[in-house]
Amino acid sequence: MRLGERAGLQESKPLRDIFGDALLEVVENNPKVVVLDGDLGNSTKTELTRKAFPERSFNIGIAESNLVCIGAGMAGAGLIPWITSFSSFLLCNGYDQIRLSVAISNLNAKILGSHGGITLGKDGPTQMGIEDLALVGGLPTVVILVPSDPVTMHKAVKAATDYVGPVWLRSSRIAMPYIYPQDQEFIIGKAITTREGNDLTIIANGMMVASALDAAVALQEDGIQARVIDLHTLRPIDRDAITKAAKETGAIVTAEEHLLHGGMGSNVARVVSETCPVPMRFVGLADTYVESGDPDDLLEKYHLTSADIEAKAREVLTAKRETA
Amino acid sequence: MEKDETTKLPLEELTEIAKNLRLDILKATTKAGSGHLSSSYSSVELLTALYFNGILRYRPDEPQWPERDRFIMSKGHAAPLLYAVLAKAGYFPREELWRLREANSPVQGHPILGKMPGVEATTGSLGQGISLGIGHILGGRITGKKYRVYVLIGDGECQAGQIWESAMAASHFNTHELMVILDYNKFQEMGPVSREMGLEPLVDKWQSFGWQTVEVDGHDIEAVTQKIHSLQEIKDKPTILIAHTIKGKGVSFVEQDYTWHGRAIKDPEQYKAAEKEILCG
Q1: CB B133 within 8 A of CB B127
Q2: What local confidence, expressed as pLDDT, does residue A324 receive?
Q3: Helix B11-32 and helix B221-232: axis angle, to 10°?
């Protein structure tokens, strides 16, 4: 069954294409926006902008350290740079540069880390961003956005551009179905309650939001009402939405296409343990690298499917009953 | 007529400024108990020429003036020198220097963008300054602002891969408005550069990346100024001034011993001796 099918979500094109469209729009509307590429524009989809606005597009080549700092220099010149490449290359070759020249400098630079998660599939683990959010988590001034559908991706690109300060935006190769109507509000730092429910809460980001909605439909068949929260901003984290969910539903499952170590779930757990400790379960990658493969096969093998979320939901409900 | 935004002083005054910068750096680092005195001393005349001999265009009362020339201290450990120069140029009161490396002070151990006016980049992990400078130039071409960018790098810093990534890119984009000044003092933290990780043939390396190179005695203020002006005439490639310098210049016992790299002078007798040598020039 395809992602979001059980929840009745409409199919869309790959998330990276949505990013490309949205980027073109902000470049059209704001003469200060410039785009920097690490020779992957046809993969990250900045190629649309390069065609339409060659004078504001720069291919820095396969040199991410240089890429990040040239972008930072442009921010210093008063422009709004979008620095783009695969998250794995930006963070592993350009981390020091992001740290000093963007994060400590608190510059108005935007970074697109594409190919987040494991669903890029066949290119294998060297290309996958399974630790991107943990690494960006180590850069305290940087806002972290992980959109879950075409509408929120589109709005995230605009919100990131309008926000004054450093922003990291995760994009992925996989097609994420439509979850939201076009007029869905998207505010940095404000989680979206995507589905109401009071028996437990599934907090997800990225493609796992659609998966969570599929799981919620399955749980509903057994009379379990799962709330689903789309935590599209990892920093600043929406403490209020998390605390409210813990208080009102008494059990939480987090779901992310990322390592469990240092990812979204661990950050949610930090809030929950401080404000309203309730039983929690975590769906994500255990301490492992993934190999090449068809995305669906990989999701199944590494336990990132809606069935895995559903199983954790039942587990956490048992724990909730036992602690009651 | 357009106001000339540079400061140009006679040579005797420049020599006096260089002397006072060394004294300020000595006092600041000794008070802090740490800081890179010797790495600062090798660049004193270079920055004196830039800021006070009619090269850099800047407005201390308007640090964010969009058309200012940018100076990027890529060898961030020479922060004590940068602060002393900025104070002398009028960006902030000289008294701030005595708060170097203190808690609740904006005078950070290595330069942090946004903490002190006149500081153009966060540096201290080496290799990033030229890339930042390229970004400023490419950005200026889009915003239509005309300015130059000067980046001071160290010799040990040339071991960083990013230096060569940026050397390639500056040449590719022909950022001739960018000038790199290399403080070639021949020493890095662990010893002589030639022994630890040699750079030679250094001129050939830069030239092969498409740069115009000029060598100069980095402690001769007039020669440095003249070479910089001649490099400013180059329009078809980025330029680098390779300045031969002496690490710790001005204090003999520091000059003779590379282990002073990250140390301040703490011994009162040594402090007095250093002060005396600097004053006697």
Answers
A1: no
A2: 80
A3: 100
- What proportion of chain A, given as a percentage, has pLDDT over 70? 100
Say if residue A99 is in the same domain as residue A226: no
Catalytic residue among A64, A131, A257, A310: A64
A317 and A201 both lie in a single domain: yes
Say if residue A145 is in the same domain as residue A247: no
**A109 and A251, same domain (yes or no):** no
Candidates B184, B251, B140; CA nearest to A79 is B140
**Same-domain status, A207 and A165:** no
**Domains within chain B, CATH numbers bracketed:** 11-280 (3.40.50.970)
Last residue of a domain, one of A103, A136, A170: A170
In a domain, A72, yes or no: yes
**CB-side neighbour CA atoms (13 Å) of A129:** 28
My answer on whether A163 and A209 are in the same domain is: no
| Cross-strand partners of A283 | A255
d(CA B139, CA B44): 29
CA distance B137 to chain A (A): 8
Is pLDDT at A53 greater than 50 in this prediction?
Answer: yes
The contacts of residue A236 (CB under 8 Å, 6+ apart) are A143, A188, A189
Strand partners, A21: none
Residues A142 and A219 in one domain: no
Residue A264 within a domain: yes
> For the residues of B26-58, what is the DSSP string, one character each?
HHHHHHHT---HHHHHTTHHHHHHHHHBT----
Q: Reply yes or no on whether the pLDDT at B2 is more than 60.
A: no
> For residue A20, what pLDDT is reported?
98
CATH code at position A25: 3.40.50.970
Name the residue of chain A whose CA is nearest to B114's CA.
Answer: A105
Q: B25 exposed, middle or buried (CB, 10 Å; 0-12, 13-18, 19+)?
A: buried
Please indicate whether, in this complex, the C-beta atoms of A77 and B136 are within 8 angstroms of each other: yes
**What is the per-residue pLDDT for B1?**
39
| Distance of alpha carbon B42 from alpha carbon B45, whole angstroms | 8
Q: Are residues A158 and A233 in the same domain?
A: no
Mean pLDDT of the region B239-253 = 97
Residue with tokens 């504001």: A56
Q: Tell me the longest C-alpha to C-alpha distance in chain B.
A: 55
Name the residue range of residue A312's domain.
192-323
Q: Tell which residue, A170, A175, A174, has the closest CA to residue A121.
A: A174
Query: What three-state secondary structure class fits B199?
Result: coil
**Probe site for chain B from A70, A79, A82 (most B CB atoms < 10 A):** A70
Number of domains in chain A: 2
Quick check: ipTM above 0.90?
Answer: yes
Q: Please tell me if residue B70 touches chain A, with a CB cutoff of 8 Å.
A: yes
The answer, yes or no, to whether residue B200 has pLDDT greater than 60, is yes
Instruction: List % helix, strand, coil for chain A (3-state, nearest 5).
Output: 45, 20, 35
Span A187-211, average pLDDT: 98
Nearest to B135 among A63, A74, A100 (CB): A74
CB of B42 closer than 8 Å to CB of B218 = yes
Q: Would the pTM of this model clear 0.80, i.e. be above it? A: yes
pLDDT at residue A240 above 70? yes
Task: Give the pLDDT band of residue B120 (cuts 50, 70, 90).
Answer: very high
Cα–Cα distance, B200 to B194 (Å, whole number): 8
> Distance between CA atoms of B134 and B152, rounded to whole angstroms?
13
